[in-house]
Design brief:
Blueprint: H1 4-72, H2 79-92, E1 96-103, E2 115-120, E3 123-128, H3 140-148, E4 152-153, E5 157-159, E6 165-176, E7 179-189, H4 191-198, E8 207-211, E9 217-219, E10 241-243, E11 246-252, E12 259-265, H5 266-269, H6 271-296, H7 303-317, H8 333-359, H9 370-378, E13 384-390, H10 393-400, H11 402-419, E14 426-431, E15 434-439, H12 444-458, E16 462-465, E17 468-471, E18 474-479, H13 486-500, E19 504-506, H14 514-533, E20 536-545, E21 551-562, E22 565-567, H15 573-578, H16 582-597, E23 603-608, H17 610-614, H18 616-629, E24 635-640, H19 648-659, E25 664-670, H20 677-683, E26 687-690, H21 692-695, H22 702-718, E27 721-724, H23 730-738, E28 743-744
Parallel strand pairs: 18-19, 21-23, 23-24, 24-25, 25-26, 26-27, 27-28
Antiparallel strand pairs: 1-2, 1-7, 2-3, 4-6, 5-6, 6-7, 8-9, 8-12, 10-11, 11-12, 13-15, 13-18, 14-15, 16-17, 20-21, 20-28, 21-22
Helix pairs in contact: 1-4, 1-6, 1-7, 6-8, 7-8, 10-11, 16-18
């Protein structure tokens, strides 16, 4: 230690190691924090994806209970009606295990009565819960909803008599003449929820489990733990906590009493962190070795240069590689030390550059990735951005496989880079079939023209796949908005281009989808509330015989009743399909319409889409309704003809089923969309409803008259009756009669009304 070289070396190594350790610790801390944040976001995304399925299952029981409660509160409490209602509920509720109507005795002398129907091995069985060994008056499922005067869910339990299935019971008070009459229950199987939670995978070996309101385990990879009390301390929700070698996060399932626990294995969660720690340690060891080697060779004569080198070492440790190391011309220890320091500086700088490139480069295409794009956007002044999407890429990927799909993505990315003429325009790959062209400062017209020309050139590009050459089409969205909004608005423009089947769309405020998103959220909430409030109602429009002007039938159409207004389905029907409420609306319409027409002898029609026909739940419901009301010969099912029929076998099977009940078939809106006389021959309908776009100006439009004449002639030869839609005035009616159309429907006779004239 007496040697100044050794002391200097020792001191320098200590300083360098301290700086490296401090830098590594700070990096380790922030990277660990970021990994935990990403894991938390992933957990919330898992909860969001799981929530809908759980809420749908619970909501199905609540909606079914409310619907049945309303029917029962009409006053028919005969044993036959109760049995019919409860067994019907169990038949069409796949996860409904059992149901009872537990009557409240009027006095202590009255016998208890609680008919209970339940499923067992595919059969619905009956039992009376009122027995010597079971006094349901004392049971929580009966007492609590009476005390609270509202429906409740029970804590989940195992139903030992039903195959040891995990259940939860929904109890709903039933009133008659403002007095509590009984408690209606539905036993809901939680098996689907258990299967869904069990299917959740986290990293390689992580998992999820579900907790009840009372912290009992409902679903767990270890089935032996199900329904046991959760023995760990229940921490704050939505925060990652460490327990042994795992990280836990507890996320409440919104609108339920359940909590989803998601478990991340620590070694998998921080695998990247551990690798970087090892690399940092190795770099520190190598750097220290080089530093010791160079410092030991230092001479007393180079004390001053050594101080300079020490300063440079601190700068390097801080990541500053701009200061130049001057190598002395002398061939002594100082020269060698300076040379070694220069080598280390270049090596670390090169390694950091490589890490920066890796962090900002898409692995598949070697183009800039989303991280690089966001960074470039944030540093831009007058940005211009275009998102280029490969049309029908998912179909190509499915057909050729993922490896060849990756090859297509890589080749198109390479061609995009080669075709870009402006050196300041960069190409990025941000998603499977999407690329971004971004310029930080360019004239709008120049950018738009360059993108248009680039896409024309790209149309000529072909990629060789399995000895054949594929060409591609592209859709593009362009935005020149503020850098904080440019990526989002370019994506909006792309969505508009896809919808309108245009090659390029440039974003302007008028085409923003923000209002559409807000509208979808508004109507989703309104639809859900309308189902609970039973606000969907049918209206009826007469169909008149053109020969005698007599109303022979009515078409039933759906409306949403809001106070004194009836809302058109154009505002909510498509959104209801996206939110999976559409089948419930369809079933409501069918049941209410049948209930109205049971009291007369009129023929009536109901609209069905191809989606309805292919839905097994709707099919079973229609068959049950036809069996219940037994007047199928007065029913006409109108198939919405504007939809393409791809699965003819399933459609024909459904039509044969309803025809066996005596029902008739009509093709709606014929003359537009996918109109096809071949469809008519295959479907053999009883009626053709000629689309209103042909009828509304038929008295003045010669071309429309030719088309309609062709349809009528074909229909008569096939023995099919014809109905003209949109008959709005007497001139149209006279032309319709002249063309020998059998029936008319439209505002000339009546608008759709909520009641049928007697």
């Amino acid at each position: 230690m007496n040697s100044i070289s050794i002391r200097f070396a020792f001191t320098s190594v200590c300083v360098a190691l301290f700086v490296l350790l401090l830098t590594g610790s700070v990096n380790y801390f922030f990277l660990k924090k970021e990994l935990l944040r990403e894991a938390t976001q992933k957990a919330k995304l898992i909860e969001k994806n799981s929530r809908f399925e759980i809420e749908s299952l619970i909501s199905s029981a609540e909606v079914a209970s409310c619907s049945l409660k309303r029917l029962l509160e009409e006053g028919d409490f005969s044993k036959e009606n109760i049995e019919n209602r409860l067994t019907k509920l169990l038949k069409y509720g796949e996860s409904f295990f059992g149901s009872t109507l537990a009557f409240k005795p009027k006095n202590s002398q009255m016998p208890l009565f609680s008919p209970y129907f339940y499923k067992k091995e595919g059969t619905i069985l009956y039992s009376d819960l009122a027995s010597e060994n079971y006094n349901y008056l004392t049971k929580p499922w009966y007492k609590i909803p009476i005390e609270l005067e509202k429906p409740i869910w029970s804590e989940p339990y195992f139903d030992e008599g039903g195959g040891n299935v995990l259940m939860s019971t929904y109890s709903n008070p039933v009133f008659y003449n403002d007095e509590l009459l009984a408690i209606l229950t539905i036993d809901l199987s939680l098996q689907k929820i258990q299967e869904m939670v069990s299917s959740i995978s986290v990293l390689d070996s992580g998992y999820a489990f579900l907790l009840s309101k009372e912290n009992k385990i409902l679903s767990h990879p270890d089935n032996s733990l199900v329904m046991k009390a959760y023995d760990k301390e229940f921490p704050t929700l939505n925060q990652m906590i460490e327990v042994d070698d795992y990280w836990f996060i507890y996320v409440p399932i919104v609108d339920t009493d359940f909590t989803l626990a998601i478990v991340f294995p620590e070694d998998e969660l921080f695998s990247t962190l551990h690798k970087m720690a090892i690399i940092s340690i190795l770099l520190a060891i190598v750097g220290s070795f080089l530093l010791v080697l160079t410092m030991v060779l230092a001479s007393r004569r180079v004390t001053e240069p050594l101080r300079e080198l020490t300063k440079l070492t601190v700068d390097i440790a801080k990541g500053n590689f701009t200061k130049e190391i001057t190598i002395p011309k002398t061939n002594d220890e100082t020269s060698k030390l300076s040379s070694a320091m220069l080598t280390m500086q270049k090596a670390i700088k090169r390694q950091q550059e490589q890490l920066r490139v890796i962090a900002s480069t898409d692995v598949l295409t070697d183009l800039g990735n989303r991280y690089k794009l966001i960074k470039d956007i944030n540093s831009s002044k007058n940005p211009a951005l275009a998102i280029v999407k490969i049309d029908n890429f998912l179909e190509l990927n499915d057909f050729y496989g993922y490896k060849l799909g990756d090859h297509i993505v890589k080749q198109i990315g390479m061609n995009l880079s080669n075709l870009v003429k402006n050196k300041t325009t960069n190409v990025y790959h941000i998603q499977g079939d999407r690329y971004v062209l971004f310029n930080p400062d360019i004239d709008k017209e120049e950018f738009t023209n360059s993108i248009s020309q680039l896409l024309k050139n790209l149309d000529d590009i072909k990629v060789k796949i399995n000895e054949e050459y594929l060409s591609f089409n592209f859709t593009t969205g362009i935005s020149f908005e503020d850098k904080n909004e440019i990526l989002t608005t370019a994506d909006m423009a792309l969505q508009i281009a896809i919808r309108s089947n245009e090659n390029i769309v440039t974003f302007i405020e008028e085409i923003s989808l923000n209002k559409e998103y807000e509208n979808n959220i508004f109507w989703t909430k309104k639809i859900k509330k309308a189902i609970l409030d039973d606000s969907f109602v049918p209206v009826y429009q007469p169909i008149v015989n053109n020969k005698n002007r007599v109303t022979e039938k009515y078409e039933s159409l759906v409306r949403l009743r809001v106070k004194d207004r009836l809302i058109s389905p154009s505002l909510f029907l498509e959104i209801s399909k996206k939110t999976k409420h559409y089948p419930t609306i369809t079933k409501t319409m069918i049941e209410k319409t049948f209930e109205i027409f049971k009291d007369n002898n009129l023929e009536f029609s109901l609209n069905l889409t191809i989606e309805d026909i292919l839905n097994k739940e709707i099919e079973y419901f229609i068959v049950a309704i036809l069996n219940k009301y037994d007047f199928g010969s007065r029913v006409v099912f109108e198939i919405v003809e504007s939809e393409s029929i791809e699965n003819f076998e399933e459609v024909l099977r459904f039509l044969n089923i309803v025809k066996s009940f005596g029902c008739k078939i009509a093709i709606d809106d014929f003359g537009t969309g996918y109109s096809n006389f071949v469809y008519l021959m295959k479907l053999s309908p009883d009626y053709i409803k000629i689309d209103g776009s042909l009828i509304k100006d038929i008295h003045t439009n010669a071309q429309a008259q030719v088309v309609v004449t062709t349809i009528v002639d074909f229909a008569k030869k096939m023995g099919i009756k014809t109905i003209a839609e949109f008959v709005e005035n007497e001139q149209i009616l006279n032309k319709v009669i002249e063309l020998d159309i059998d029936y008319s429907q439209g505002y000339f006779f009546s608008e759709p009304k909520i009641t049928i004239p007697k």
